[in-house]
Specification:
58% helix; 49 helices; 1287 residues; mainly alpha; two-stranded antiparallel ribbon; two-stranded parallel sheet
Amino acid sequence: MLCPAPALLLLLAAATFALDPIYLPTGNYSKDEPGAQTFADDYNSTAELVLFKSVSASWDYNTNLTSENQQKQISASMEEQEFAEAWGQKAKELFDSTWQTFADPQLKKIISSIRILGPSNLPLAQREEYNTITTEMDNIYSTSKVCPPNQSTNCWSLDPDLTEIMANSRNYKKLLYAWEGWHNVTGVPLKPKYETFVNLSNWAYRMDDFKDTGAYWRSWYDSPTFESDLESLYHQLEPLYLNLHAFVRRKLYERYGPKYINLKGPIPAHLLGNMWAQQWNNIYDMMIPFPGKTNVDVTDAMVAKGWNAIHMFNVSDEFFTSLGLLPMPPEFWEKSMLEKPKDGREVVCHASAWDFYNRKDFRIKQCTTVTMEQLFTVHHEMGHIEYYLQYKDQPVSFRRGANPGFHEAIGDVMSLSVSTPGHLQKIGLLDKVTSDNESDINYLLKMALEKIAFLPFGYLIDQWRWNVFSGRTNPSLYNYDWWYLRTKYQGICPPIPRGEDNFDAGAKFHIPGNTPYIRYFVSFILQFQFHKTLCKAANHLGPLHTCDIYNSKEAGKIIGEAMQAGSSKSWQEILFNMTGTDKMDAGPLLEYFSPVTEWLKEQNRISQETLGWPDFEWRPPVPEGYPEGIDKIADEAQASTFLDDYNSTAEVIWNDYVEASWAYNTNITEYNKQIMLDKNLVMSNHTLQYGMKARQFDYTDFQNPEMKRLLKKLSDIGRSALPEDELKEYNKILSDMETAYSVAKVCKDGTSSCQPLDPDLTEILAKSRDYDELLFAWKGWRDASGKTIKNNFKRYVELSNKAARLNGFEDNGAAWRSVYETPTLEADLDNIFQQLQPLYLNLHAYVRRELYNKYGGKYINLNGPIPAHLLGNMWAQSWSNIFDLVVPFPSATKVDATPAMISQGWTAKKMFEESDNFFTSLGLTAMPPEFWAKSMIEKPKDREVVCHASAWDFYNQKDFRIKQCTVVNMDDLITVHHEMGHVQYFLQYKDQPISFRDGANPGFHEAIGDVLALSVSTPKHLKSINLLSKVEDNTESDINYLMSMALDKIAFLPFGYLMDQWRWKVFDARIPESEYNQQWWNLRLKYQGLCPPVPRSESDFDPGAKFHIPASVPYVRYFVSFVIQFQFHEALCKAANQVGPLHKCDIYQSTQAGKLLADAMKLGSSKPWPEAMQMITGQPNMSAEALMKYFEPLTNWLIKRNQENKETLGWPEYNWSPAASVAQEQPVGKSSFLGMSLEENQAVAGQWILLALGIILILTTIVLAVKFASIRRKARKSASEMELKKY
């Protein structure tokens, strides 16, 4: 709740306050020593009453932060200050001329203390302002909360929420958000108030003859050399701190990496397990020197044994009484706030001990949680209470520690015993104590992370405040000087830019709480001096760090006597009585930590650490996307466990699905289809479950790149992102489309003679030279397959896009492209296509001429596109089947192994065995027994199957198969090697995590088999396996061979490119549903120079006549494959020490080439594909240069031949269609355009669109000579060779 405005508070305070006369010094005191003694006695009895009221009001406010309680606290503070002013002024009036001559030193101290008025010196208005500001600063700090991003509810308070985040989170962003949030919500509103407070406080203490507030604070230590003594102590301890800092920095570097940790710079302040980086013990889990040895953390044991806050305080009370010290009084147990209230009250959670000055009421306020760290805090705070109890009968002026550091040290010295493994075993929190050097180092490092890490922080806070109070640091430099000191002493830096609008000092309780802090530094020195003395009294033998004074009355007697004195004696005297020295000494602390000091030095020497932070000004970058993702898991160990679990379960789930899919694809029945769909759903649910868990990890800054990559892959859950009902619909659509494709048959009118695609229609397209028969097969297949899936395809597009968007992509095309990890993929592929286009245009012109010679001008236009059914393949993607029509030199050798294969009785199995032999000759892995036992390598005669050749990984690291309706011919021999290339890839990466069992990119998988086929198809190799009787080494034979290869490889390129051009445009809606078929043929015309042989309309769906469309298989992989396989081929030929033209190279039996290939395949997709490319080719880029080099002899021949024949390159008469029969004439009102049967307006619009394409083609023709000259020269690297960027 917000407090009332300051002006109102001041008004209320002024209106209601009047000091009760009973609290005034009304006695008739003489100005001599006896009079002063009476005065002091009266002051003491009255002060107990006033202080009780003031402390009670402060307690009420701190345990219930309301405006009403705030007002009461202000009033009580005003009363206390009025009391102090009245008695202080009276003391000055009576004794200022005599008090320093008094014989009783204690009386002198009391009068000196009374006469210091502090804020009571201020005029009433300024005093009210002072009280209001201190209360408001308390309120800001205590009620501040940090809300998660984009939220205004469920906000985090410092305790326990932010404290737990800082202690337990290892998420860099979340730690940063908690750190920045807390420093902003507290520091920023405090700064103007703190400036006013400093001015008022200095005004008050200057009236007490101090230079400033800092001088007053230092006076408590009663030593003129106090500041220089502290500096000396700090420098004595600094080497140990520097070694600890260097060690911790290295460990943080191993966790967060060089982006966020500079091994020569300061450490970002939010990474050290504590909001203020004052203690680092919460990051001990990252620092453990010997993980296999004992690590003392009893938090789990406390929780398991049902410990609660009350029990923790009882255990602490028992420790003190075991030393013969006083137990906690009844009021302590009745009135303390030991846990955070659950009734909705706002409270000040910062742990503190309270003396109510009535000699019986002592309390602790702590929001205790059940942890080992809090157990030590309990002992610390109870140490304060024990001090109160011991000196309660001293005059009020002496009821404080010998110096402020003494008070802090009492509880801490108890914690040095409590934290020992020996003591924790005694109180039932450790089963056994392991005593060896490694366990000791573990224990001491954890203690160092608490004690040694604290020292520079404990030292610098009041260095900063003393500078502020003295004016050396003015308000315009508050934050700059704060961070200068923190970097200078602690070697830490702000993790995010901070300016003078920030006030980061205010984010620490003691700044707005106006609590001097150097006491803690002093305490950390004194507690080890005390510890050494008490251990000696307890007759402890052995290292200091193993000492436990529990049950030692002798030790209790020494410390009890010191506490009883309060501040009635000088701290030097009390220290001397305890330890035998009157000086603070870091020697015992250094002795305590000496084993770990030497260990740290050795570790830092081994790792060649820089001690200190010479890169003083270094600052870490702000994380990408900050503050998004702060709630994600950033623990690498947790991620590793998760990924192991995913991998082991996925292998089972995926194997089940692949088995079901295999059963369906090799036996198309409704039953098998349903089983496959059920298993697919299980797999999708598994993918969804683990994918959503993967998304809970923030792996941005993980140090293990493989783990980052796995989580990224796993986070893309593909179609599993769809709601279950839509996922089922999607799976059914895919299954239905693929089934429709696979069972489609073409029947002759009026007959039951129906022909499937494989082998019947495929054979017609390959072998027939009858124009009408080819047309029948071509059109019939599209009617039987594509038309039937169009409606399903539209819904498939919608669902695919929805799944993609749920995975964070704009559409499904973007999702498909993302697997290439190349943001410029589309532009890169276009550049490569442009580089290859001149060769294609020359091949197209040559083939068109030969088809013209075969079919005549009725069906072939020498200036137009080629009818798509005349190229020997259902999709005109490969033209190798019409080699007999286009062979350059009919009398020269033509490479066709089919006749020899048939005459020699080759079978499908023989083809696979020969392929296996090729792989093993390279030193690659032989096909396993399961391959031979379970593959389907011929079309069964008893059932419907999906004949499309495919390779299968069953994800159990041993079962790999091929499904192929193999025909004994050379084309299928090449296909066998291609599919077996996939299986070889499976075998090589089978030991990778399941998410990495894939090609470096999809094109790699396709290229592996093909690159071997480049060797297999050479005349040299075919002769070596007795499929050619001789090899002719002459130009004509070479051109014939290269032509046969070009009809396969070069003819394919535009088709491989355009398939996904079409789908990407469908997915992103550049192609609407109403233009599916029209735009399909536009692309086929643009890139392939083909036209439909009969009119087509939007009632047709010709893309669906290609398997990869209904099967939802991305296709640009094949284009990529056809480019990179030649890069691989060139590299492997070099490894095999082959010389001569690239097209003659055969790497058969080269184990060097095999190793090069295997090493890249073993990576799977664990690395970005350019790294795999680099391994094979020595450079990371995708380039068409090797392909152009391979076909250079043919390119030159084609250019010459086309020039001789005066061929037109391209198809400027783009709107030409072949002659139609009467049965194919256009309906009334329809126009034929690109073979499409369209409405008049559609045809006109299409003509305008394609006019632009025609102009481009004409321009292309004009500049071809320039391009070919460039190809020939090859004087410089192709401009299309680009570096593909990684994410």
